[in-house]
What we know:
This protein is α/β, with parallel strands linked by helices. It contains 13 helices and 13 strands.
Amino acid sequence: MILVTPFIRVADEVASALAESRPVVALESTIISHGLPRPENLRVAIEVEDIVRAGGAVPATIAMLGGVVYIGLSRDLLEQVANRDDVVKVSVRDIATVAARGGNGATTVAATSQIAARAGIEVFATGGLGGVHREARESWDESADLTTMGTTPMTIVCAGVKSILDVGATLERLETLNVGVLGYGTNVFPGFYLSDSGHVVDWAVSTPAEVAKIMEARRAFGIESALVVAYPLAESDQLDPDLHDRVLQEGLKLASARNVVGKGVTPFLLDHFHRATHGASLIANERIIVHNADLAAQIAVARSEMSV
Ligand code: PSU
Ligand code: MN
């Protein structure tokens, strides 16, 4: 499907892959602009695209520049997303306003899924999903990633949700919202920096072809919600759990002491992790994104082999 509107531009490479039912993997941009520090953010964004290509799929990083939503970024646009100071975090509710104003924006999991699904992309790789915040009972802070996943058909490869969130509550909400959750190679739900969040998932899968078959069946049944493929870091690659717990407690206290609220909470805590672990969380974060992109490419390839 080629989208004909002045608000959206699909890169030629992505458009022809979609037209020919070749594998495409969507990638988000909030992780670049707000999730990782400079200059690592640009390096990781390029590395992730390279991994998707090496896996035989076309990367489609999604971001907004000058009011236009780009599906597939040139190197120049990728650099702008990574380095400009006026790139705002864009969730679904913000897309149209930023477009109408000609602004620059980095899309969250929610906004990326929404746009990618509209373009006909079925697979999306990210680091971690947004979810229910720990103090949600008072603050009502729950990511729009959740409700968007409830209504958007997209297979999302991730390492679960950050431990900065309430993981158990997030899993309950995913159930309520009809979001499918598969553990890749495991029954354990990953804890982003940690391999194990302490929660289990009902379904474990072990091959990209299995995921592709589930995607096909979901389509046959008209299931319009997202499918989460939760892919944990190997234990040897995770952040040291003691360091993790200490930094998390510190970060949560700091966020509340400084009155960080709303969409600033996730970037604040991520930044705290990167600084307080002296880069160890950054290394784990990079590993997560890269191996998720690798698996997403394999799933997209398996899916396209199935649809021919
Ligand atoms: N989790 C990460 N890194 C990130 C994000 C989440 O490990 O960069 C970003 C994603 O783009 C996600 C968004 O969609 O934060 C969720 O933000 P909020 O909680 O404000 O909805
Ligand atoms: Mn929020």
